[in-house]
Every structure is written in C-alpha cells, then in structure tokens.
Amino acid sequence: MNLGLDGRVIVISGSTRGIGHAIAEAFLAEGARVTVTGRTPGTADATSTALTSKYGSDHVLGFVGDLTERAVVSQLLDEVRARWGHIDHVVTNIGSGRSTPGVVVGDAEWERVLALNFRAAVTLIEAALPELLAAKRGSIVAVGSIAGIETIGAPLAYGAAKAALTHYIAGLARLAGPSGIRANTVAPGNVLFPGGSWAERLAGDRAAVQTMLDREVALARFGTPEEIAAAVVFLASDQASFITGSCLVVDGGQTRSPK
C-alpha cells in the first residue's frame, strides 16, 4: 500500500529508542525525510548515524536537545526548515510512565510528569501549527497511552497527563480541521523493548509479568515498537485522510471500554 509519504518532512520528538525509534524507521521506510531527536548526545548521534547509513543523509536530520523547553523546540524547527524548507507532519512521543505510586503524588512530581507527558507535546505542536495552518495541510499524531483512557492501575499523575493529551488532541482536531489539519492520538498498551520499564520488570519477575499478560491482555503478550509505529505512520498518511480527532488504541485487547 502506498501511504503517500515519499518526500514528506516529519518531526518526531523522542525518537532515539523504543517506540520513537521504530516510528522514525517506519517513516523512513516510506521514503519520508525524518528528524531524529533525543536529549542524550551519544544516543541521539548514534541513532541518526545508523539511520543515515541505511536511508541516506538526505532523509535524516539528527537533533540533540531537551524538547520540554520552548526555546529548544524553536531551534529544532528552525533547523528542519533550514534543511528541508517546511514541515509536513508532527509526531509527539516524549513521555515516561515512571512516577510516584499511591494516592498522594506531591506538587513537584505532578509538575514533572505533566511537563514530560503533556506540556512537551503541546509546546511542539503549538510551535509547528502556524506553518501547518498557513499551508492548509499536514497532520499531527500524539503518542498517548491506554492509561489516559481507562483506569488500569497506572500512576495517577501519568494517567491524568495522558488523559489531558488525548482530550487536547481531540479538541485541536475540531479547531484545526477547517484549515485542513488532522490530529489524532495513538494509545499503546504494554510495549516491550530493551531499556524500557517492561524489560526491567521481566528481569525481576518473569512469571508474574506473564501472569498479568494472561489475565489482562486478550492476546496475552506484549506489543512491539513496530506495531505502534505502524499505527502512527498510517494516521499521518494520506490513507487516513478522513480520520481526525480519533484515539487509536493499540493494546492487544487490554482495555475493556468500547473503542
């Protein structure tokens, strides 16, 4: 299937490992031009170098910086425009499910989790929106979580942040739709990749993790970063041209609410 992404310019926040890395590679496989971003210089540089060797220097732009900061986001977009002239699609993928458990979270932790899992996405989207609105084309895909649409025992601050993100994207879709901009969310379930939280839990108690999967997930397994990436790339593509304001759940049948 031709997704119509050849030559498109994609900005992805948080794309050096796991789901973000898989998203970057999936877009590159479709012929898109991709900005690979990360906060850690060694990791970001290694990822962009590896992808450049595979897909070519004309398709990959590496960027190192903390994209929770508005000034750094502006610098990123300036570099993208200097390299490729414009932006076609934005994918927000910065986030972490690690947070304080229990009913009392504390002010500092609320601020940290909201900044990472909600405000960072809004900052990038708001910085890119004027260009997309002026061009009357493009799409936005936010990587959320099933913790934002159903209570699954995730930390309170994380679930609330992802719920806010899902609501924001749905509202944005209504406002930006008349200008030709689409906005959607992908809500992953449990995804396994090296260095991720589920890899740590598996190392600690594999039997308990498998018991959870058997009990909670219809497919009784983890998802892969590539399975999440496939959903993101589809929603950004021309094949999803009449889809906006949606939240696509990719969780192996874990959530029970109607989808």
Folded structure, characterized:
- This protein is of the alpha/beta class.
- The chain has one domain: Rossmann fold.
- The chain has eight helices and seven strands; from the N terminus they run βαβαβαβαβαβαααβ.
- Superfamily at the CATH H level? NAD(P)-binding Rossmann-like Domain
Please give the CATH architecture. Answer: 3-Layer(aba) Sandwich
Q: Strand-residue fraction?
A: 5-15%
Helix tally equals 8
Strand arrangement, largest sheet? 3-2-1-4-5-6-7
- Outline the biggest β-sheet: 7 strands, parallel
Q: Indicate how many domains the architecture comprises.
A: 1
What share of residues is helical?
40-55%
- Rounded to the nearest angstrom, the radius of gyration is 18 Å
Task: Label the structural class.
Answer: alpha/beta
Top CATH class:
Alpha Beta
CATH topology: Rossmann fold
**Shape by Cα distribution:** globular
What is the average of the pLDDT values? 94
Low-confidence stretches: none
Please provide the count of β strands: 7
For the termini, the CA-CA separation is: 25 Å
Q: What's the order of the H and E elements? A: EHEHEHEHEHEHHHE
Topology diagram in text:
Layout: E1 9-13, H1 18-29, E2 33-38, H2 41-55, E3 60-64, H3 70-84, E4 89-92, H4 107-135, E5 139-143, H5 156-176, E6 182-188, H6 197-204, H7 206-216, H8 225-236, E7 247-250
Parallel strand pairs: 1-2, 1-4, 2-3, 4-5, 5-6, 6-7
Helix pairs in contact: 1-8, 3-4, 4-5, 6-7
